[in-house]
Protein backbone atom coordinates (compact mmCIF):
# COMPACT_ATOMS: atom_id res chain seq x y z
CA UNK A 1 0.00 0.00 0.00
CA UNK A 2 1.06 3.57 -0.53
CA UNK A 3 1.79 5.93 2.38
CA UNK A 4 -1.58 7.60 1.88
CA UNK A 5 -3.60 4.36 1.87
CA UNK A 6 -5.82 3.72 4.90
CA UNK A 7 -4.41 1.43 7.56
CA UNK A 8 -7.60 -0.62 7.76
CA UNK A 9 -9.46 -2.10 4.79
CA UNK A 10 -12.56 -4.28 4.99
CA UNK A 11 -13.35 -6.67 2.16
CA UNK A 12 -17.11 -6.99 2.62
CA UNK A 13 -17.76 -9.79 0.17
CA UNK A 14 -15.86 -12.97 -0.58
CA UNK A 15 -16.41 -16.72 -0.60
CA UNK A 16 -14.46 -19.92 -0.14
CA UNK A 17 -15.08 -23.18 -2.01
CA UNK A 18 -14.19 -26.83 -1.61
CA UNK A 19 -14.78 -28.90 -4.73
CA UNK A 20 -15.48 -32.04 -2.71
CA UNK A 21 -18.40 -30.47 -0.82
CA UNK A 22 -21.94 -31.43 -1.89
CA UNK A 23 -23.66 -28.83 -4.07
CA UNK A 24 -27.22 -27.68 -3.42
CA UNK A 25 -29.63 -28.84 -6.15
CA UNK A 26 -29.35 -26.43 -9.06
CA UNK A 27 -26.17 -24.88 -7.70
CA UNK A 28 -22.98 -24.43 -9.69
CA UNK A 29 -19.85 -26.39 -8.65
CA UNK A 30 -16.69 -24.35 -8.18
CA UNK A 31 -13.02 -25.38 -8.00
CA UNK A 32 -11.21 -25.20 -4.70
CA UNK A 33 -10.77 -21.64 -3.47
CA UNK A 34 -9.39 -21.96 0.02
CA UNK A 35 -8.98 -19.60 2.92
CA UNK A 36 -5.23 -19.85 2.41
CA UNK A 37 -5.70 -18.71 -1.19
CA UNK A 38 -7.80 -15.80 0.02
CA UNK A 39 -5.22 -14.83 2.62
CA UNK A 40 -2.72 -14.38 -0.20
CA UNK A 41 -5.15 -11.90 -1.77
CA UNK A 42 -5.56 -10.16 1.58
CA UNK A 43 -1.82 -9.76 1.97
CA UNK A 44 -1.38 -8.48 -1.58
CA UNK A 45 -4.18 -5.87 -1.35
CA UNK A 46 -3.65 -4.87 2.29
CA UNK A 47 -7.04 -6.10 3.50
CA UNK A 48 -7.16 -6.18 7.30
CA UNK A 49 -10.75 -7.35 7.92
CA UNK A 50 -13.06 -9.50 5.81
CA UNK A 51 -16.62 -10.74 5.49
CA UNK A 52 -17.30 -14.28 4.31
CA UNK A 53 -20.53 -14.62 2.33
CA UNK A 54 -22.22 -17.98 1.97
CA UNK A 55 -22.65 -18.68 -1.77
CA UNK A 56 -25.77 -20.24 -3.24
CA UNK A 57 -23.74 -23.31 -4.26
CA UNK A 58 -24.03 -24.76 -0.75
CA UNK A 59 -27.60 -23.78 -0.01
CA UNK A 60 -28.33 -23.73 3.72
CA UNK A 61 -25.18 -25.68 4.61
CA UNK A 62 -22.97 -22.95 6.10
CA UNK A 63 -20.42 -25.40 7.53
CA UNK A 64 -17.54 -24.56 5.18
CA UNK A 65 -17.80 -20.84 5.85
CA UNK A 66 -18.28 -21.34 9.59
CA UNK A 67 -15.06 -23.37 9.56
CA UNK A 68 -13.29 -20.57 7.71
CA UNK A 69 -14.54 -18.03 10.26
CA UNK A 70 -13.44 -20.00 13.31
CA UNK A 71 -10.58 -18.29 15.15
CA UNK A 72 -10.98 -15.07 13.14
CA UNK A 73 -13.88 -13.53 15.03
CA UNK A 74 -11.82 -10.43 15.82
CA UNK A 75 -11.33 -9.48 12.19
CA UNK A 76 -13.87 -11.51 10.19
CA UNK A 77 -17.64 -11.93 9.99
CA UNK A 78 -20.05 -14.21 8.15
CA UNK A 79 -23.23 -13.57 6.20
CA UNK A 80 -25.06 -16.90 6.17
CA UNK A 81 -27.87 -18.42 4.13
CA UNK A 82 -30.70 -19.73 6.29
CA UNK A 83 -34.37 -20.70 5.87
CA UNK A 84 -36.97 -18.11 6.94
CA UNK A 85 -38.22 -20.43 9.69
CA UNK A 86 -34.81 -20.83 11.33
CA UNK A 87 -35.24 -21.77 14.97
CA UNK A 88 -34.12 -19.52 17.80
CA UNK A 89 -31.54 -22.01 19.10
CA UNK A 90 -29.81 -22.35 15.73
CA UNK A 91 -29.97 -18.59 15.19
CA UNK A 92 -28.29 -18.10 18.53
CA UNK A 93 -25.57 -20.59 17.64
CA UNK A 94 -24.87 -18.78 14.37
CA UNK A 95 -24.84 -15.38 16.03
CA UNK A 96 -22.37 -16.61 18.66
CA UNK A 97 -20.14 -17.96 15.87
CA UNK A 98 -19.89 -14.54 14.19
CA UNK A 99 -22.85 -14.44 11.81
CA UNK A 100 -24.04 -10.85 11.39
CA UNK A 101 -26.44 -11.14 8.47
CA UNK A 102 -28.43 -13.35 6.13
CA UNK A 103 -28.20 -13.42 2.35
CA UNK A 104 -30.92 -14.07 -0.20
CA UNK A 105 -29.63 -14.70 -3.72
CA UNK A 106 -32.71 -13.91 -5.80
CA UNK A 107 -30.84 -13.74 -9.10
CA UNK A 108 -30.22 -17.47 -9.11
CA UNK A 109 -33.14 -18.21 -6.81
CA UNK A 110 -31.13 -20.81 -4.85
CA UNK A 111 -32.27 -21.70 -2.22
CA UNK A 112 -34.52 -18.68 -1.54
CA UNK A 113 -37.14 -16.73 -3.49
CA UNK A 114 -38.51 -13.17 -3.36
CA UNK A 115 -41.50 -14.44 -1.39
CA UNK A 116 -39.09 -15.33 1.45
CA UNK A 117 -37.84 -11.77 1.91
CA UNK A 118 -40.48 -10.50 4.39
CA UNK A 119 -40.00 -13.48 6.73
CA UNK A 120 -36.21 -13.20 6.44
CA UNK A 121 -36.51 -9.53 7.35
CA UNK A 122 -38.42 -10.39 10.51
CA UNK A 123 -35.86 -13.06 11.39
CA UNK A 124 -33.01 -10.60 10.94
CA UNK A 125 -34.76 -7.97 13.04
CA UNK A 126 -35.21 -10.49 15.85
CA UNK A 127 -31.52 -11.45 15.75
CA UNK A 128 -30.02 -8.00 15.25
CA UNK A 129 -28.84 -8.99 11.77
CA UNK A 130 -29.02 -7.29 8.39
CA UNK A 131 -30.56 -8.83 5.27
CA UNK A 132 -28.31 -8.94 2.23
CA UNK A 133 -30.25 -9.20 -1.04
CA UNK A 134 -28.75 -10.10 -4.40
CA UNK A 135 -31.37 -9.03 -6.91
CA UNK A 136 -31.35 -7.46 -10.33
CA UNK A 137 -32.65 -3.93 -10.75
CA UNK A 138 -36.01 -5.13 -12.07
CA UNK A 139 -36.50 -7.22 -8.94
CA UNK A 140 -35.54 -4.29 -6.73
CA UNK A 141 -38.15 -2.12 -8.44
CA UNK A 142 -40.77 -4.86 -8.17
CA UNK A 143 -40.07 -5.38 -4.47
CA UNK A 144 -40.03 -1.68 -3.63
CA UNK A 145 -42.80 -1.91 -1.04
CA UNK A 146 -41.32 -5.00 0.61
CA UNK A 147 -37.82 -3.52 0.79
CA UNK A 148 -39.05 -0.23 2.21
CA UNK A 149 -41.02 -2.07 4.88
CA UNK A 150 -38.17 -4.29 6.09
CA UNK A 151 -37.71 -4.08 9.87
CA UNK A 152 -33.94 -4.63 9.58
CA UNK A 153 -31.07 -2.99 7.69
CA UNK A 154 -30.86 -3.94 4.00
CA UNK A 155 -27.64 -4.57 2.08
CA UNK A 156 -27.82 -4.64 -1.72
CA UNK A 157 -25.15 -6.63 -3.53
CA UNK A 158 -23.03 -5.49 -6.45
CA UNK A 159 -24.18 -1.90 -7.06
CA UNK A 160 -27.78 -3.19 -6.75
CA UNK A 161 -27.15 -4.38 -10.32
CA UNK A 162 -28.24 -0.96 -11.56
CA UNK A 163 -27.34 -0.25 -15.20
CA UNK A 164 -24.41 2.20 -15.42
CA UNK A 165 -25.99 3.73 -18.50
CA UNK A 166 -29.36 5.31 -17.76
CA UNK A 167 -29.55 4.20 -14.13
CA UNK A 168 -31.40 7.39 -13.21
CA UNK A 169 -34.25 6.44 -15.57
CA UNK A 170 -34.60 2.92 -14.18
CA UNK A 171 -37.55 2.26 -11.86
CA UNK A 172 -35.15 0.82 -9.26
CA UNK A 173 -33.16 4.04 -8.89
CA UNK A 174 -35.65 5.98 -6.72
CA UNK A 175 -36.04 2.88 -4.54
CA UNK A 176 -32.29 2.52 -3.98
CA UNK A 177 -31.69 6.26 -3.68
CA UNK A 178 -34.49 6.69 -1.17
CA UNK A 179 -33.33 3.81 1.02
CA UNK A 180 -29.75 5.10 0.96
CA UNK A 181 -30.77 8.65 1.80
CA UNK A 182 -32.86 7.39 4.72
CA UNK A 183 -29.96 5.30 6.05
CA UNK A 184 -32.09 2.17 5.62
CA UNK A 185 -29.92 0.40 3.04
CA UNK A 186 -26.29 -0.18 2.16
CA UNK A 187 -24.83 -0.83 -1.29
CA UNK A 188 -21.75 -2.94 -1.99
CA UNK A 189 -19.35 -1.52 -4.56
CA UNK A 190 -18.39 -4.96 -5.78
CA UNK A 191 -18.45 -7.13 -8.90
CA UNK A 192 -18.60 -4.29 -11.46
CA UNK A 193 -18.11 -6.90 -14.17
CA UNK A 194 -21.61 -8.23 -13.37
CA UNK A 195 -23.21 -4.99 -14.54
CA UNK A 196 -24.37 -4.14 -18.01
CA UNK A 197 -21.77 -2.29 -20.11
CA UNK A 198 -21.16 1.36 -19.38
CA UNK A 199 -19.03 3.86 -17.49
CA UNK A 200 -19.51 3.14 -13.79
CA UNK A 201 -18.26 6.47 -12.49
CA UNK A 202 -21.53 8.42 -12.68
CA UNK A 203 -23.47 5.62 -10.94
CA UNK A 204 -20.87 5.42 -8.17
CA UNK A 205 -20.95 9.17 -7.71
CA UNK A 206 -24.75 9.17 -7.55
CA UNK A 207 -24.79 6.40 -4.94
CA UNK A 208 -22.28 8.35 -2.87
CA UNK A 209 -24.36 11.51 -3.14
CA UNK A 210 -27.43 9.73 -1.78
CA UNK A 211 -25.72 7.69 0.94
CA UNK A 212 -22.05 8.49 1.57
CA UNK A 213 -22.17 6.63 4.87
CA UNK A 214 -23.91 3.60 3.37
CA UNK A 215 -21.37 2.38 0.81
CA UNK A 216 -18.94 -0.51 1.36
CA UNK A 217 -16.50 -2.36 -0.89
CA UNK A 218 -15.82 -6.02 -1.61
CA UNK A 219 -13.64 -8.17 -3.86
CA UNK A 220 -16.24 -10.84 -4.66
CA UNK A 221 -13.28 -13.25 -4.64
CA UNK A 222 -12.95 -15.82 -6.23
CA UNK A 223 -15.34 -14.12 -8.66
CA UNK A 224 -17.90 -16.91 -9.20
CA UNK A 225 -19.88 -16.75 -12.43
CA UNK A 226 -17.57 -14.08 -13.86
CA UNK A 227 -16.98 -14.58 -17.57
CA UNK A 228 -13.41 -13.34 -17.28
CA UNK A 229 -11.93 -13.83 -13.85
CA UNK A 230 -10.20 -10.61 -12.69
CA UNK A 231 -6.58 -11.13 -11.77
CA UNK A 232 -5.94 -8.00 -9.75
CA UNK A 233 -8.20 -7.29 -6.77
CA UNK A 234 -6.13 -4.19 -5.95
CA UNK A 235 -7.10 -2.77 -9.34
CA UNK A 236 -10.75 -3.59 -8.64
CA UNK A 237 -10.52 -1.68 -5.37
CA UNK A 238 -8.85 1.28 -7.05
CA UNK A 239 -11.50 1.31 -9.77
CA UNK A 240 -14.34 1.28 -7.23
CA UNK A 241 -12.83 4.15 -5.26
CA UNK A 242 -11.69 6.33 -8.15
CA UNK A 243 -15.10 8.01 -8.81
CA UNK A 244 -15.44 8.91 -5.11
CA UNK A 245 -14.12 12.07 -3.47
CA UNK A 246 -10.78 11.34 -1.82
CA UNK A 247 -12.24 12.27 1.56
CA UNK A 248 -14.87 9.52 1.27
CA UNK A 249 -12.60 6.62 0.30
CA UNK A 250 -11.35 5.78 3.82
CA UNK A 251 -14.98 5.66 5.02
CA UNK A 252 -15.95 3.18 2.30
CA UNK A 253 -13.00 0.96 3.18
CA UNK A 254 -13.28 1.15 6.97
CA UNK A 255 -15.70 3.48 8.77
CA UNK A 256 -18.85 2.38 6.95
CA UNK A 257 -18.20 -1.38 7.04
CA UNK A 258 -16.93 -1.22 10.64
CA UNK A 259 -20.31 0.20 11.61
CA UNK A 260 -22.26 -2.31 9.52
CA UNK A 261 -20.36 -5.45 10.56
CA UNK A 262 -19.40 -4.45 14.09
CA UNK A 263 -15.64 -4.17 13.77
CA UNK A 264 -14.17 -2.22 16.68
CA UNK A 265 -10.54 -1.98 15.56
Could you give a short description of this structure?
With 265 residues, the protein is α/β, with parallel strands linked by helices.
Comma- or semicolon-separated keywords:
265 residues; alpha/beta; 10 helices; 8-stranded parallel beta sheet; 35% helix; 14% strand
Provide structural commentary.
This protein has ten helices and eight strands. It has 265 residues and is α/β, with parallel strands linked by helices. It has an eight-stranded parallel sheet. The two termini are 19 Å apart. The mean pLDDT is 95.
Helical percentage? 25-40%
Order of helices and strands: EHEHEHEHEHHEHEHEHH
Work out the radius of gyration: 17 Å
What does the largest sheet look like?
8 strands, parallel
In spatial order, strands of the major sheet run 1-2-3-4-5-6-7-8
Given the helix and strand composition, which structural class is it? alpha/beta
Query: How would you state the average pLDDT, rounded?
Result: 95
Q: What form results from the Cα inertia axes?
A: globular
Instruction: Report the β-strand fraction as a percent range.
Output: 5-15%
The count of DSSP E runs of length 2 or more, i.e. the number of strands, is 8
Q: How many helical elements?
A: 10
- Cα distance spanning the termini: 19 Å
Low-confidence stretches: none
Amino acid sequence: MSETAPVRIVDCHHHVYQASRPIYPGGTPHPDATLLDYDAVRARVGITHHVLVQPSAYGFDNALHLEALRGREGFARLVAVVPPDLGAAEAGRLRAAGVVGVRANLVQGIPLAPSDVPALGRLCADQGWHLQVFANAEMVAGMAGVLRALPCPLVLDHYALLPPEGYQRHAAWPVVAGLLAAGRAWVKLSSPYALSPGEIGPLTHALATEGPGQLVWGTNWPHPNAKGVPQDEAALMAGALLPLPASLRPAVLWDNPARLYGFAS
